[in-house]
Amino acid sequence: MYHYILFDLDGTLTDPKPGITGCVQYALRKFGIEEPDLDKLEPFIGPPLLDSFQEFYGFEEEKGQQAIIYYRERFSTVGLFENEVYPGVPQMLARLQENGCRLAVASSKPEIFVKRILEHFGLLSYFEVVVGSELDGRRARKEEVVEEALRQLLGEEALTQHGLRRIEDAVMVGDRKFDIQGAKRFGIASIGVRYGYAGQGELEEAGADMIVATVGELDEYLFNKRRSN
Fold first, then answer.
1. What is the pTM of this model?
2. Which sign does the torsion angle of CA 19, 70, 35, 198 carry?
3. Is 31 within 8 Å of 174 (Cβ atoms)?
4. What CA–CA distance (Å, rounded) separates 181 from 155?
5. Which parts of the chain have pLDDT scores under 70?
6. What phi-psi label fits residue 180: left (phi over 0), alpha (psi between -120 and 50 degrees) or beta?
7. Is 8 in the active site?
């Protein structure tokens, strides 16, 4: 059923908690804010950084943009590799690729970092398309990322309203409500993964079409969908 599969990165393919939370902690310290409990910074995993600094620490936009600069001081050299591929992910991607699925990454993280992470962990070759945000803040919304990934996978015609109704063989896989919302914006199916960083009931409330608990369950679901086509 699913020929085009879009994957989120953080909390879906890899566990980025040490890197992301450590870099947020580093940025906050620049403003004299000490946050020793990295668990409290988990909500930063998923949404655009500016939104998170504004929502959780009340930063105005200018201060939030400066916080992002501080964040990237550490992330660009250390934090992006403080990361771990979820067990079973390479095997899942290999099996899907071998069976003719066209795979993409659709992440709100800057594209330059997404590609470096995928390459570092030996995952880049599985993906036909890799889309992220721009360093200057453009294409930070998940809807924008999903749109560009679909455009690159399917072509411009598929993004017309008439064409969207026919994309029945595309799916977005992610761990946060933003992934589900991005899929719904373009009329494609969505799979929420519970092993990531969604809050209690978040994926259900967002309206995920399917929710899985483990990478193994995701693998079997996607593979069986492909095999039944």
1. 0.90
2. negative
3. no
4. 21
5. 158-166, 226-229
6. alpha
7. yes
